[in-house]
Amino acid sequence: MDTFCLESAMTASENSPVLQFFENLQLSFLDEFDKGVAQLSVTLKKRPSHFQIATPHESSEDRILAMEPGVPERKMTYSWPGKTPQEAWKFSCILRILSLIFEAVQNNMLITKRCRTLQGAVQLFGTQSVVNTIVDDIAYTVGVDRAALHVISVGKGLAAGAFRIMTKAKNCLDMSVEAVFRRLVHNKYHLNSAAGKGILITGKGYPDICTREFVHLISDIATKNSSSILRGLKITPPTATPRFLALVDGDCDGVAIMSTYKYGSMAHAHASAHLNAPRLEWLGTRIKDVVIEQNRNGNDGEDWAMISLSHRDVKKVRSMLAKNPVFSEDGPELEWRAELQTMMMLNMKAETEVLYGTGGGLEGWIDRKMKDL
Q1: What total number of domains does the chain contain?
Q2: What is the residue range of 196's domain?
Q3: What is this structure's pTM?
Q4: Where is the Topoisomerase 6 subunit A/Spo11 TOPRIM domain (predicted)?
């Protein structure tokens, strides 16, 4: 059986930029305390809001969603007591999160954005999105990823398939025997079909950072036989170069999810080069896939194949076409753009579950589709 075999040789990351940031912040506070009236402040860089499609390296043909060059860097300074109650509240939130990060770094422990320590101050933060924004802005300001701040996301993604992971403790995680996805993983016909062995990964909707990092790692290994992130990684590659295929709903969210995996997201465009899967191809589900299967099965206009767009769908498609360079007229994915325009023109979308009713079910459809690639 062809497998990926990964043996982690990762060492602890260097936290000097993080410690330097805290040292500078402490010195600025001490300087203020020496004054008659202290005016404490924290300045954070704001992540960009203008994007383009770019190559991560001059020698690379890959393309990612990246920051647009020449846009002035934005910074926000939050002070205490501040000019407004809102500023004082934001300063308090930032200072609380900074203190938790500093404690985690000092004690070499990991915390999650949803851990009890952070959630205990939910009345201060208001919502989880406030915590997420502050943590990401701190990481962007320091110039590191969240892991360097000892803040991690609780991964929601799942994976199963023909690969094994060997940990530093020499424990082998054999993902080829782990049953995760009810519809596909349990179906031995699909996993052992003519399409070949494979790895199934789901982010359960929009993928979190952990899932995207894992897909990027597999992509790096498959295309470069190395990892730009995990130095010293020992790899036993498969005998054939894997292909990366996306199976998503044929709606605006499905296309947006696929774009996030391949090109990155606007929220983390500055880190796209470490989160993308540039060889990703669209397996389905397109509107025409459903129409073809509908005709194949003799279903003449039945309701199961037609789902009208909601007001939110229309608004999101318009936003994607207008603001995301992946879907622009001169963007890299004209087929994706055309699919979004077709949705708008026909006022319809397609869910992958529709294919359950086709010949051989969803698994049979996947096998037929992959044989045609």
Answers
A1: 1
A2: 1-239
A3: 0.78
A4: 178-220, 245-357
